[in-house]
Structures are given as C-alpha cells and as structure tokens.
C-alpha cells in the first residue's frame, strides 16, 4: 500500500511538471514566466520597431518587457542577458562594439535588414545657396560663420547626439573651425532641424538615412575624404599625417539585429521570429515620419505598421519548428 502511494505521488509530480512545461511551451515557448526583454534606445525608428517586435511576440503569447537604454549602455545589457533584443543596430556608430562582442561570443548577430544606411554631417539643401562649395568638406571653414551663435561667432556649431561618434577627433584631424554641441537624443537634434528649416536658418547636424528627412526635407551629407579602415588606426594615412579620423563615416552600411546569447534558450520562438524579421528602408522612413512629423506616439505608430503589413509579418511569426 505504501509503495502504491509513493508511486501515485511520483506519477502526480511527473504529470504536474509535464503540464507546467507544456503550458510554458504553449505560452510562446518561454522557459518559466521569464519575460523577453526588448531594448528601446534613443532614436525614433528604433523605438517604434521595438514595439513592433514586441507586438509580434505577443501574438505568439510571449510576454515582453521593454528596457530603456542609452546606445552605449545597450552592450552591457545584451552581453549580460539583462536585455535580449536590439532590433536596429547601426554598424557605423555602434558597429565596433557590436562586432567585437559577436566575435568574442558574447552576442548574437540575429541577421540583417533590407536597408542600407548612412550617417554623417548633414545640412538642408537650402544651406547650399549660402555655402556653394558644399558638399565638399573643404568648404566648411569658409562657411563656419553661417552656423555660429552669439556665444562664439567665430566658430560654427555642429549638432551631434548622445552616440559614441568621434566628431571632435575629426574636427581636430581636418582642422575644422567648429564646436560640437551634444544633445541628449536624436529627437532633440531633429527638433532643432525642424525649427531651423521652418525659418530657412543655416544648420549643420548629425543625421542619418533612412529617416523622416528622406521623405520630407531634401538635404545632403557632407563629403569628407572617403572612409578607409586605416583612417581610424594609422595617423599617417589620409589628409592629416598626425591624427586619426580624417575621413568620412562608412557609406552603405547594413542595418542589423542583435540578440543576447540567452534568447535562443529562453524563447526559441522569439529568437526565430527576430531572425525572420526584415525591415526595409521605407519602413524606417515611415515609422520615423509618423512620430516625428505627424506626432503619433511610438505605440500608435507600431500598431499602424502592424495593421498595414500583416501579409509581411505573418510568415515571420509562422515558425512551426520553434513556436507552438
């Protein structure tokens, strides 16, 4: 009788565990009740597409949590499993750390988007009428006064964001008569741009493409000496024989997705969906325009994108080998 009771207890425990595991699998294949953590950074398209990602995972009953991070802080979070997904990684400003962590086996490259990007000094096209030597970088010093302010009328102002970009090093290497004004977010940079464009005031700023400016404000990137890997490793290379960073940022960079090492085990379904996701240049332009020009919330823009693109995302979440 005691043996029968013990067998009954063991059997009940076994089936209870099996039921729990089955329930976990049904609810998006996440181990236990742990949420998949999606990083939101400091520019519009990344935030909106992070909410799109979360919306797709939730359609497979995967619980998500959004973790706000700076661009530089994301690497610590991803490498230590405190964040699981970063949906828009730029190889220019962010690529050095990204590639280094992937090569060290601390991060997963979860695939590329179908969009080429560029980031560098940029100005609205109306500025060219006042500084006709542009986009050649050698015209910048002749026109520095156009971008100055009352605090320092002899130096031009270049507006940059919070990202780890070697703008001061480039200014030094190319002897540019400019100061870097760092703002906290991409949104602040583009707010300054909208105000300047409204009154046709000269402005020189860090910008990137794809972005809402591709849709509604014609402009040009400054053409610095072409990028070469030696530009950032060998002072003897290039225009300056003394300083690094005497070149442009790389052109035609491929936007990527980053995953923590833990995500494939935490949720094979979520990992498979992220790998399948692929946004186009138009996607990046659209979601940025909806927020930065039409004043939608990030969440509303994500819902609009999902509603407009069901035929595209249905195959992304249809992962029979990984999602139940």
What's the short version?
The chain is of the alpha/beta class. It folds into 2 domains: 30-116 and 253-317, D-Maltodextrin-Binding Protein, domain 2 (3-Layer(aba) Sandwich); 118-232, D-Maltodextrin-Binding Protein, domain 2, CATH 3.40.190.
Q: Which key phrases capture this entry?
A:
324 residues, five-stranded antiparallel β-sheet, D-Maltodextrin-Binding Protein, domain 2, 2 domains, two-stranded parallel sheet, alpha/beta, disordered N terminus
Descriptive overview:
- With 324 residues, the chain is of the alpha/beta class.
- The chain folds into two domains: 30-116 and 253-317, Periplasmic binding protein-like II (D-Maltodextrin-Binding Protein, domain 2, 3-Layer(aba) Sandwich); 118-232, 3-Layer(aba) Sandwich (D-Maltodextrin-Binding Protein, domain 2).
- Helix content is 38%, strand content 18%.
- It is built from twelve helices and nine strands.
- It has helices spanning 2-26, 44-58, 74-79, 95-103, 167-173, 186-198, 213-216, 263-266, 268-276, 281-292, 298-308, 310-317; strands spanning 36-40, 64-68, 85-89, 108-124, 156-160, 178-182, 205-209, 219-221, 253-259.
- The strands form three sheets. Strands 3, 4, 7, 8 and 9 form a five-stranded antiparallel sheet that branches. Strands 1-2 form a two-stranded parallel ribbon. A two-stranded parallel ribbon has the order 5-6.
- β5 (156-160), α5 (167-173) and β6 (178-182) form a beta-alpha-beta unit.
- α2 (44-58) crosses α10 and α10 crosses α11 (298-308).
- The longest helix is centred in the N-terminal third of the chain and has 25 residues, at 2-26.
- The protein is globular, with a radius of gyration of 24 Å.
């Amino acid at each position: 009788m005691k043996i029968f009771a013990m067998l009954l207890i063991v059997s009940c425990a076994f089936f209870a565990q099996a039921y729990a595991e089955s329930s976990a699998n049904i609810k998006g294949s996440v181990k236990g009740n742990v949420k998949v953590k999606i990083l939101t950074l400091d520019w519009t398209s990344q935030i909106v597409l992070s909410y799109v990602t979360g919306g797709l995972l939730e359609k497979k009953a995967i619980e998500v949590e959004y973790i706000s991070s700076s661009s530089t802080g994301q690497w610590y979070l991803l490498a230590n499993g405190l964040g699981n997904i970063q949906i828009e990684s730029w190889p220019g400003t962010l690529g050095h750390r990204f590639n280094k962590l992937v090569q060290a086996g601390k991060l997963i490259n979860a695939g590329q988007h179908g969009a080429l990007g560029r980031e560098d000094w940029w100005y609205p096209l109306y500025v060219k009428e006042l500084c006709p030597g542009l986009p050649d970088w050698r015209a910048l010093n002749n026109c520095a006064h156009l971008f100055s302010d009352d605090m320092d009328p002899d130096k031009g102002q270049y507006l940059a964001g919070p990202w780890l970009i070697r703008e001061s090093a480039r200014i030094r290497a190319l002897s540019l008569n400019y100061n870097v004004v760092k703002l906290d977010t991409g949104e602040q940079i583009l707010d300054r741009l909208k105000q300047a464009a409204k009154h046709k005031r000269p402005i020189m700023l860090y910008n990137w493409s794809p972005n809402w400016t591709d849709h509604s404000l014609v402009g040009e990137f400054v053409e610095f000496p072409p990028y070469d890997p030696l530009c950032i490793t060998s002072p003897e290379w290039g225009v300056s024989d003394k300083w690094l960073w005497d070149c442009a940022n790389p052109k035609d960079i491929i936007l990527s997705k980053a995953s923590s090492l833990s995500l494939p085990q935490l949720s094979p379904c979520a990992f498979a969906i992220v790998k399948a996701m692929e946004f186009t240049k138009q996607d990046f332009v659209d979601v940025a325009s909806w927020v930065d020009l039409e004043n939608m919330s990030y969440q509303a823009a994500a819902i609009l994108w999902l509603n407009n693109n069901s035929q595209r995302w249905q195959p992304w979440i249809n992962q029979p080998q990984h999602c139940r």
